[in-house]
């Protein structure tokens, strides 16, 4: 059996049934665009560990990258897809051994999350108030809830309890190309089980969302002037233009989520509560991502101990230490 035949069978009969829609489409894109051009015509049982290593050593071309190569993160994703694909082939008796087993993951850089400063956040909030484009209110929602862009755009008014001031996150939208290559918006369950959550709203945001609801024409919280839902790519472009108009440095939309987490830590929110609001699997995950921000918070609280040291400015140092 040729690799191409097995890959298509695996995608259609195994991956399609086991994976969430977003993961399935991503895996299908990986196989179609990066793996089939290299291994498609090769006999399945002729692909060994050396062939897989050669595949990665070649770094696979990527016209969108400055150096023309795929990033280590993307290569690791390709490795994950291939490992699953060949694991199923072993289980079916098509090959004896998974050729990916001997191929290790590549090192990736762990970049610290980037957040907007308090001044930049103030600029954004003032611009939102002045804006005639109702769609930008979603930016404020993210600044005070930490929602991901897909969660925000999937949020419907029926998910918002305006009386109690609680939003329920139960779904997410994302953009991907369909079989014809056209960009489409898909709705799926959130990123993980922990991402299905309830988030209490600050009282001011509850009031402002109640006012927004009265003017709403459609079922989604973020909508265009006709009341229709807004796509992910459209909203990303809108956010980029919004930052430029505000004179704020360009950061990804996800930086709004990091900004929320940073502000929450600054006002003393405990890490367990923050983790649940963000929809992380565990508090450890939150600690790893926001270790830098959390350190700043700890330093701020530790500096408050300076007041104890200065209980009596007339005391000698030795007397202070013997208190």
Compact summary:
By secondary structure, the chain is mostly helical. Helix content is 52%, strand content 7%. The chain is built from 15 helices and five strands.
Folded structure, characterized:
There is one protein chain. This protein has 323 residues and is mostly helical. It contains 15 helices and five strands. Strands 1-2-5 form a three-stranded antiparallel beta sheet, with no helix packed on it. Helix 5 runs antiparallel to helix 6 (137-143), helix 10 runs parallel beside helix 13 (291-303) and helix 11 (271-278) crosses helix 12 (283-289). The chain is globular and about 70 Å long. The mean pLDDT is 87.
Secondary structure elements and their pairing?
Layout (H helix, E strand, L loop, with lengths): L2 H16 L2 H19 L9 H9 L14 H20 L26 H13 L6 H7 L5 H6 L5 E2 L4 E4 L2 E6 L5 E6 L8 E4 L2 H13 L16 H15 L8 H12 L4 H8 L4 H7 L1 H13 L2 H4 L7 H5 L2
Antiparallel strand pairs: 1-2, 2-5, 3-4
Helix pairs in contact: 1-2, 2-4, 5-6, 10-13, 11-12
Radius of gyration, whole Å = 25 Å
Overall strand count: 5
**Largest sheet, strands/sense/barrel:** 3 strands, antiparallel
Shape: globular
User: In terms of structural class, how would the helical and strand content be classed?
Assistant: mainly alpha
Keywords:
three-stranded antiparallel sheet, mainly alpha, 323 residues, two-stranded antiparallel sheet, 52% helix, single chain, 15 helices
């Amino acid at each position: 059996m040729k690799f191409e035949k097995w890959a298509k069978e695996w995608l259609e009969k195994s991956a399609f049934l086991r994976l969430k829609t977003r993961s399935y489409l991503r895996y299908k894109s990986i196989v179609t665009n990066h793996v089939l051009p290299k291994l498609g015509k090769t006999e399945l049982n002729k692909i060994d560990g050396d062939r897989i290593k050669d595949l990665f050593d070649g770094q696979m071309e990527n016209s969108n990258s400055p150096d023309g190569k795929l990033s280590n993160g993307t290569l690791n994703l390709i490795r994950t897809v291939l490992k699953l694909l060949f694991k199923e082939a072993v289980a079916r008796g098509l090959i004896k051994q998974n050729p990916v087993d001997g191929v290790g993951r590549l090192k990736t850089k762990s970049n610290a999350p980037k957040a907007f400063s308090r001044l930049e956040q103030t600029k954004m909030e003032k611009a939102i108030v002045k804006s005639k484009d109702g769609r930008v209110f979603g930016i404020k929602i993210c600044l005070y809830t930490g929602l991901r862009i897909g969660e925000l755009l999937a949020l419907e008014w029926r998910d918002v309890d305006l009386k109690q001031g609680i939003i329920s996150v139960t779904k997410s939208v994302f953009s991907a190309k369909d079989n014809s290559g056209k960009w489409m918006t898909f709705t799926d369950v959130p990123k993980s089980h922990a991402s299905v959550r309830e988030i209490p709203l600050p009282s001011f945001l509850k009031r402002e969302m109640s006012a927004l609801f009265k003017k709403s024409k459609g079922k989604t919280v973020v909508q265009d002037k006709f009341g229709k839902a807004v796509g992910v790519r459209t909203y990303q472009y809108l956010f980029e233009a919004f930052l430029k108009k505000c004179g704020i440095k360009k950061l990804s939309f996800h930086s709004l989520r990091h900004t929320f987490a940073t502000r929450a830590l600054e006002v003393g929110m405990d890490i367990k509560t923050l983790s649940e609001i963000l929809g992380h699997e565990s508090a450890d995950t939150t600690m790893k991502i926001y270790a830098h921000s959390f350190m700043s918070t700890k330093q701020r609280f530790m500096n408050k101990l300076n007041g104890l040291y200065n209980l009596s400015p007339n005391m000698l140092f030795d007397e202070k230490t013997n208190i």
